[in-house]
Amino acid sequence: MSEEERKFDLEERTFQFALAVRRLIGKYRWVREQRTDVEQLLRSSGSVAANYTEANNAISSADFSHRLKISRKESSESRLWLRLLGETSDHDRKPGIRELYREADELVRIFSSILRKLGE
Known about the structure:
Number of helices: 5
Order of helices and strands: HHHHH
Shape: elongated
Helix content: over 70%
Strand content: under 5%
Largest sheet: none
Distance between the termini: 31 Å
Mean pLDDT: 94
């Protein structure tokens, strides 16, 4: 698969998002006030990828649409946790958090666009 094909492989992209979140989280020590946000971010980012994978194996168009909606919701939730971590983190962590926030935001937009095209 070429680099261009990978860029538009949404299943791989959601996997890479979840993986990047895990790598960022593992890179630092987090203070008590951030631990809940970290745990929630780990869950929501993984759920983005898991639900999109399930959408690709949907048993009906309604199931496909439902899984996309969950992926969009979890992407949006990931933005919240990333924003909270960004606001409570030291300067050295902010670039990585901002990058992940942008990716979560793009995923929300992509899922919204797909759902609009489906008439949802």
